[in-house]
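Changelog-adjacent note: as of this version, every example in the card shows the full chain rather than a window. The one below runs 132 residues end to end.
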Amino acid sequence: FSILDYSDHARKMKSTTIDIWSGLKPMTFGMKKFTQIPNAIQEDIVNGKLIGNDLVVYNYLVSKAAHGRPIFYTNERMGRELGGMSYGKISASLSRLKKANHISRFKTYNRTATKLETAVLQGGKMIIRGES
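Full-length structure tokens:
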């Protein structure tokens, strides 16, 4: 697994415009960060412990909770921010990720906390922990 780091070139580029044919609107692609898949996650997908939706939810959690502290997002909010993924799909993905020890979830007074266990950013570097 490699370190998530951005080159100076990638930081300077804000968007790239591609003119496909004249007369059509050009397509603009914003430069965004990307997430590499930890080997533990990839192995669990190959072995059938996780499915594609789980990877989408995991990448979302990395973008929101890579600082290592719990987040308190509802399933509805996660689904909405993932483009309308249903409550049931979010719930099922979170259950599979928890069963595979990639996240932990615990209830507080009136909310549920979600914490990454497989990947956490420390000083700009991705640290892998947890188990496959």
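Structural remarks: The beta strands are 15-18, 27-30, 103-107, 112-116, 119-122, 125-128.
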